[in-house]
Amino acid sequence: MIAELIELRDKIDEVDRAILSLITKRLALVTEVGEVKSQHGIPIYDPKREAEMLTKRRNEAELVGVAPNLIEDILRRLMRESYNSENDKGFKKVYNGQGSIVIIGGNGQMGRLFTRLFSLSGYQVKTLGSKTMHQAAEMVADAAVVIVTVPINKTAEIISGLPPLPKDCILTDFTSIKQQPLQAMLQQHSGPVVGLHPMFGPDVPNLAKQIIVYCDGRESEKYQWLIEQMRIWGANLYPIAASEHDKCMSFIQALRHFTSFSYGVNLLKENANLEQLIALSSPIYRLELMMVGRLFAQDAQLYADIIMSSADNIELIKRYYHCFGQMVRLIEKGDKAGFIDNFNQVTEWFGDYAPRFIKESQALLKLANDNRA
Fold this sequence. Notes:
One of its GO terms (molecular function) is chorismate mutase activity. This protein is α/β, with parallel strands linked by helices. The chain has three domains: 3-44 and 53-87, Up-down Bundle (Chorismate Mutase Domain, subunit A), CATH 1.20.59.10; 100-240, NAD(P)-binding Rossmann-like Domain (Rossmann fold, 3-Layer(aba) Sandwich); 245-334, Orthogonal Bundle (6-phosphogluconate dehydrogenase C-terminal fold), CATH 1.10.3660. It has helices at 3-40, 47-63, 68-87, 109-120, 136-139, 152-160, 179-188, 220-232, 242-269, 274-280, 283-295, 300-307, 311-332, 336-350, 353-370; strands at residues 100-104, 125-128, 143-148, 170-173, 193-198, 211-218, 236-239. Strands 2-1-3-4-5-6-7 form a seven-stranded mixed sheet, sandwiched between helices. Helix 8 (220-232) links the parallel strand 6 and strand 7 (236-239). Helix 6 (152-160) runs parallel beside helix 7. It is globular, with a radius of gyration of 25 Å. The model has no long low-confidence stretch (mean pLDDT 93).
């Protein structure tokens, strides 16, 4: 190898080691930040601080001839790691009253995630599962919060079978539909009730920037501390009426999952060569294929329950099927003008969101391309 190239690579290795040393120092400082935040009950995610810091570093990068997007990519990756470090330091306990946190379904993945978060915040956590439900009356006797996180098709049954809860105990659920379980909780418990929907899977490393939807049931002033506790964990809490939530979930979950499911079934029936598809795919198709594959790496029962959880979901999917058929007939006729007309109508409907989504998707596409073997 050319001696000059070897020398330059040695210098690059030296710089890389210096970068690694600086990253180590930064993460050590982040650990100290996490301890301070834990003591004072400061959320691990501060959107204002993050935005201001990124703007300053982008401006500084531009002044020295470094691409602003490069420094932002590096810092965002470091911040994700920083949130993980802060997450390990524990959190301030918001609730000063007596009582434990009882998680029904606590042995499931989502149950284990929130068991850990409540434990890191200093709460006593008790879990109930299918084999221990006979102990429910004893377990909930001193509960400050009872959380139901079980499969959709069992949620209403579990709620209706709960023993009497303490008067001021908060009853909540983590189900991805809200109207039915919220109504069941209101009927079962006369105290504070709120419906929660964590908009993420149990494999998230922390709750920084994650969305938790909450739907008011009763006595909101008595469950506000629970909302605040989740904010301290880093989550964004989004209030919405149960009916509006379920309408949105029909699009976000039921229809989206159904289209991925149908596409996967069609790939199977067409005997598509996945290895070749991956090898020949552009970053955008690779990303789309990854999302379809991700669905089939998970629990089939869960997605069947989500898609079939309401008659509204089925009707929405049937309307999509009708629309799909119309578009098929359009291309069968070779109606390019009709295709373009429909395309432009949707473009106008998206409005400013279309260019915004192009910009936001760039980082995902770069990551998909970076991960290509």
